[in-house]
Amino acid sequence: MVRATKSKRESISTITEHFYKLKDLRRTGWKQKLEIENAESVAAHTLLMIVLILFFSEKYQYSSKKKVRLIEMVLIHDLSESIIGDITPETMNENRKRRLEDKAFSKITEKMSPKNMKKKYLELWHEYQMKKSSDSKFVHLIDKLEMVLQANYYLNHRRGIKPETVRTFFRSALSYLSYGPNSQLPKTSKKNIQDTKDLQDIKEILEYFCN
User: What's the pLDDT band for 211 if we cut at 50, 70, 90?
Assistant: First the structure.
């Protein structure tokens, strides 16, 4: 009985340990560019992304299966940062950053139990990193939208934050829309016409908050 309890405890600790680290990890951009000491944590960023997923899932009437899948992808999208930290785009080459993230994520999942959880998360991680599926494009857009909403929140609720200091985050989001994987939405077909419409809607919302 004691051995079984210890095994279960270790299994739970394996999956939760890195999420707890994200609760203590502050988002680098806010600290460096806005000089906010008690800035949003990576875990807080993830939480607000889930809130947005729930909102849009209701708006677009997604199935429970699709909603859960999007939430799972959001939960793991920054998990590697529990090992490598929050690396801003201007401080490292994108290919090198991705290699570090992949290595960290593999290390996180190698001890996961049960094995089907490890397999599932690795597949979700690969899909998110490839940025080709509608679901991964959706999550990447939500990632940028939450950043812009957080920038607006700081602008309106923190003293000393000026419009010109948060504009860099708006430019980053707009640049992503123009040159990132979401600059080209999936080709319209009977199968993905709704996904294409939804992605376009979120792009327009993101652009609105950036202007």
Answer: confident
Residue type, 27: R
User: Is the backbone peptide bond immediately before 89 cis, with ω within 30 degrees of 0?
Assistant: no
Report how many domains make up the chain: 1
* 36 closest CA partner among 48, 46, 26: 26
Q: Please tell me the distance from the alpha carbon of residue 30 to that of residue 135, in angstroms, as a whole number.
A: 27
Exposed (0-12), middle (13-18) or buried (19+): which is 205, by Cβ within 10 Å? middle
> pTM to 2 decimals?
0.90
pLDDT digits (tens, 9 = 90+) for 127-143: 999 999 999 999 999 99
* Both structure tokens of 123: 């597949």
Residues 201, 4: Cα–Cα separation, whole Å: 49
| Structural domain for 86, as ranges | 2-210
Task: For residue 120, give the CATH number of its domain.
Answer: 1.10.3210.10
Instruction: Give the 3-state secondary structure of residue 100.
Output: helix
How far from each other are the two terminal CA atoms of the chain, in whole angstroms? 60
Helices (H), the chain: 2-24, 28-33, 42-60, 64-76, 81-84, 94-109, 115-130, 134-157, 163-179, 193-210
